[in-house]
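Example record

One chain of 193 residues, shown exactly as stored in the release files.
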Amino acid sequence: MQILRAADHRRMPWKNGGGETVEVAVWPPGAGLFDFDWRVSMATVAFDGPFSIFPGIDRTLSILSGSGMILKIDGKEPALLAQDSPPFAFSADIGVTARLVAGPITDLNVMTRRHAFAHKVVRLHIEQSWSGSLPAAVSLVLCHEGKAAFELAEESGMIHTGDVLMIEAHNREALTLAGAATCYLISIMEADD
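Predicted structure tokens for this chain:
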């Protein structure tokens, strides 16, 4: 178990040069935009325009702040993403264009290399406490707003806004979160799980 503090997240330019991403975690460690197996990041989108293409990658977007955006995905109806929308999964290797609803947004972006890994993203609104099992090989809890105390097996601690709790090899034990926070639970599974 490891806490990735907000102040330590790595900042890097977008693949298409149109903005900046705050990289939260990547596998393998130190991997770049072309050779990661999975990646969790946050980005501010300030202008309408196309998304970067990532061949062989599946991605899920969640809106963290702002009024939202409309995604036009090749061959599909436009999708409106807002802060209260569920995390939105789509293929990163097809054409996608974003149109902002009313000003800049910040999003949470989770990407996995298809046929090697898969992922799931769930938003948790914690008012007092939440408990659940962790079935994935790697689980990450991003504290988006507020703060939450965590307990897993015999380990405990606290995460604050922007921090990420990364849990590996946890033998499917139950995680408990307590406090007042909005968090995102990100599960990274091997593709055959």
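Notes: The chain is about 0% helix and 60% strand.
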